[in-house]
Amino acid sequence: MNPTLLHIDNVHKTFAGLHALSDVNLDIREGETHAIIGPNGAGKSTLLNVCVGVIAPTKGKVLFDGQQLTGRRPFEINQLGVARVFQTPEIFGDLTVIENVMMAMLSHRDGAFRLRLLSRFDERGQVGRRAAKALADLGLGDHLHHLAGALSRGDKRRLELVMSLAQDPKMLLLDEPTAGMARADTNTTIDILRDIKRKTGITIVIIEHDMHVVFSLADRITVLAGGRVIAQGVPEEIKGNPKVIEAYLGEEQV
User: 174 and 72: one domain?
Assistant: First the structure.
């Protein structure tokens, strides 16, 4: 069994008296793809936000690779090796595709976002060559000089994945990466994530409503309902768990 990379210890989060998370305990193992599923309002995105420092837990702590994340700012957590891909692609639409990737590389290296950094680097230099190769590896080699805002939704998602991976993270957190996609783009995204995993061995945590995506990718699954963990296990265990079927999978008709 691989060692734990992300340890979530007794995390609670309360908003104005509402318990968004209660007694959440979860270990993500190094090198696995771990899906977090559950109905709307289950606390999935809140948990992700706690992990990346967007919100602070009311109680409990989060450790990554043995280091305390609780109390750190998002960019500090990113520098430790945690990259997050949001539900809506977070790209710079008025920059070219290659400029987006170069920006991600420079932002991570310098510890802060500064647009003027781009002027110091030429696409023919080391950063540009690395960016071009990363884009080619994920099928965007023909779009280097296209404006990022003009890409299709699927290609925007692919670009954001390249931007995240360009920071050399140890863990990739994906918040509904196929939301709003047609089935063809969804299947392409599944293939891309499988390829990333095969090439890098990176640890992936995925929040996703599409059970086709979840069961295609996940090594293990955690199910949240009402802010609490109601089940954990490998996909076959989750599919047959009566509590999960009642709380969620029955609605999804999996």
Answer: yes
**160 contact partners, CB below 8 Å, separation of at least 6:** 85, 86, 89, 90, 91
DSSP 8-state code for residue 38: -
Q: Tell me which of 168, 189, 210 is where a domain ends.
A: 168
Question: Please, which residues bridge with residue 178 across strands?
Answer: none
How much is the pLDDT for 254? 41
Q: Report strand pairing: 18-29 vs 33-37.
A: unpaired
Contacts for 131 with CB less than 8 Å, ≥ 6 apart:
98, 101, 102, 105, 123, 166
Close Cβ partners of 56 (under 8 Å, ≥ 6 residues apart): 50, 70, 71
Token duo for residue 19? 């318990």
pLDDT, average across residues 93-107:
87
| pLDDT at residue 116 greater than cutoff 70 | no
Residue span of the structural domain in which 146 resides: 93-168
In a domain, 33, yes or no: yes
Question: What's the number of domains the chain is made of?
Answer: 2
Q: pLDDT over 70 for what percent of the chain? A: 89
Query: Between helices 97-110 and 153-165, what is the axis angle to 10°?
Result: 30
To the question of pTM greater than 0.85 for the whole model, the response is: yes
Q: Is 13 helix (H, G, I), strand (E, B) or coil?
A: strand
CATH number of the domain enclosing 54: 3.40.50.300
Alpha-carbon gap, residue 28 to 9, rounded angstroms: 12
Taking the alpha carbons of 176, 16, 54, 230 in that order, is the dihedral positive or negative?
negative
